[in-house]
Design a protein that fits this description.
The protein contains 8 helices and 10 strands. The protein is of the alpha/beta class and about 210 residues long. It has one domain (about 1-195): Rossmann fold. The strands form 2 sheets. The protein has an 8-stranded mixed beta sheet with strand order 3-2-1-4-5-6-9-10, with helices on both faces. A two-stranded antiparallel ribbon has the order 7-8. Helix 1 (about 10-20) links the parallel strand 1 (about 1-5) and strand 2 (about 25-30). Helix 1 packs parallel to helix 2. The chain is globular. The relative contact order is 0.15. The mean pLDDT is about 100. The structure holds NADP nicotinamide-adenine-dinucleotide phosphate.
Length: about 210
């Protein structure tokens, strides 16, 4: 699949690594062209300009939430594009959320780009887990919660998640990003605040 990763930081580089390994056609669009080129070169992907970035079938938004709308605006029309929103609207100390309850980062981004098909996913996966892989041993596989209002777009994002080794859990409509973003907040608290480290991931148990 043609996929553009927007952002070349912790999450962006993890996506480029895993998506290339899985055989996808991966483009990298960064604010800092040199940094994007370096990440692309490291994993055999291509750093691209805005036009080429927007031409991919799927765009993975791997910027901070505050940079999300400007980063997408720079790419021109996103009509019909699948945009995977992995952001968490975190406070400066990473221990809280700046929005929630009545909206979410994903819904705010969707409002800004009404023609795009926004799917919330991967926001509960730590960058280290993304980079190192979803296999946690003993049959445990890290899940990606996938929320969105476009069934086909959700299916595509779920397939991408599975292609790089994750389970995909259908988490309902985009509005449920209001649950997924606080879930990531709890994960961050457990990882950093409570000292469990970043080799953890939230999942859902089902009695056998
Ligand atoms: N880190 C995690 O474990 C984790 C887990 C789940 C979700 N998330 C979410 O994933 C997102 C990225 O997190 P991160 O840890 O990867 O952050 P990061 O390392 O700071 O990377 C953010 C990247 O976005 C780029 N960027 C900013 N504005 C841009 C623009 N206009 N166009 C293109 N690229 C732009 C930055 O470019 P520069 O290099 O020029 O600054 C940087 O490369 C955040 O929303 C975060 O909440 C993170």
């Amino acid at each position: 699949m043609n996929i553009t990763v927007i952002g070349s930081g912790n999450m962006g580089s993890g996506f480029v690594k895993q998506l290339k390994k899985a055989g996808h056609d991966v483009r990298v669009a960064g604010r800092d062209a040199e940094k994007a080129r370096k990440v692309a070169a490291q994993f055999g992907a291509r750093a691209v300009d805005a036009e080429e970035a927007a031409a991919a079938d799927v765009l993975i938004l791997a910027t901070g939430y505050a940079d999300a709308v400007p980063a997408l605006e720079a790419l021109g029309s996103l009509q019909g594009k699948i945009v995977v929103d992995i952001t968490n609207p975190l406070t400066a100390d990473y221990m809280g959320l700046t929005i929630g309850h009545t909206t979410s980062a994903a819904e705010e981004i969707a409002k800004a780009f009404p023609g795009a098909r926004i799917v919330k996913a991967f926001n509960t996966v730590f960058a280290q887990v993304l980079a190192e892989g979803a296999d946690f041993g003993k049959g445990q596989v890290v899940p990606v919660f996938v929320a969105g209002d476009d069934a086909q777009a959700k299916q595509t994002v779920s397939e991408i998640a599975r292609s790089i080794g994750f389970d995909a859990i259908d988490a309902g409509p985009l509005k449920n990003a209001r649950y997924l973003e606080p879930l990531a907040g709890l994960n961050i608290y457990l990882g950093y605040g409570a000292g469990l480290g970043t080799n953890i991931a939230p999942t859902w148990l089902r009695k056998a």
